[in-house]
Design a protein that fits this description.
The chain is α/β, with parallel strands linked by helices and 175 residues long. It folds into 2 domains: 138 residues, Rossmann fold, CATH 3.40.50.360; 33 residues, no CATH class. 38% of the residues lie in helices and 22% in strands. The chain has 6 helices and 7 strands; from the N terminus they run βαββααβαββαβα. A 5-stranded parallel sheet has the order 2-1-3-4-5. It has a two-stranded antiparallel sheet with strand order 6-7. Helix 1 packs across helix 6.
């Protein structure tokens, strides 16, 4: 079985929750999996791993800069080893935007990162207004109003399709 690195970027914790689910699935299949939070400034060495997975959330239409920095720093390993990428956004709750081909953030990521991973996934995230500061709560409620999402400031709604996450993990295991 393989040593697998899952490097991730999360804002509110849903991407980490998805990573933990993927790790559990891969470990059940006998893989050794390590999670690395890219937002903590950890200088992760991709060399010891046989497979690489990167997961990143969207906030205000963008993946965070440290995701692109990680891809650039480890470009050679990401291109030479089996690799995967998944993006997490509330936009992915909508049909057609829940696939790598139909999700605008995935398209934007591939173009900006100049990397097309062998396995790609798009997962809907979570809205939890109780976690947000006043400005984020206001902005996200406005975005949800425009896109017909939940706007109740007490709402906590998880949109993640867990069977799709499990299927992604199986594809990572098989790559």
């Amino acid at each position: 079985m393989a040593r697998i690195l899952i490097a991730y970027s999360t804002v509110d914790g849903q991407t980490l929750k998805i990573c933990e689910r993927i790790r559990s699935s891969l470990e059940r299949e006998g893989h050794a999996v390590e999670l690395a939070d890219l937002g903590k400034g950890r200088n992760v060495d991709a060399a010891p791993y046989e497979k690489l997975v990167v997961g990143a959330s969207i906030r205000y239409g963008r993946h965070r800069a440290h995701v692109y920095e990680f891809v650039e720093r480890h470009r050679r390993a990401l291109e030479e080893k089996p690799s995967a990428f998944f993006s997490v956004s509330v936009v992915a709750r909508k049909p057609g935007k829940d696939t790598p081909e139909g999700n605008p953030y995935m398209t934007q990521f591939r173009r900006k990162a100049r990397w097309t991973p062998g396995v790609q996934g798009v997962f809907a995230g979570r809205i939890d207004y109780r976690l947000y500061g006043p400005v984020d709560r206001l902005v996200i409620r406005f975005i949800m109003l425009l896109t017909r999402g939940p706007t109740d400031p007490r709402a906590s709604v998880e949109f993640t399709d867990w069977p799709a996450v499990d299927a992604f993990a199986r594809r990572v295991s098989a790559m």
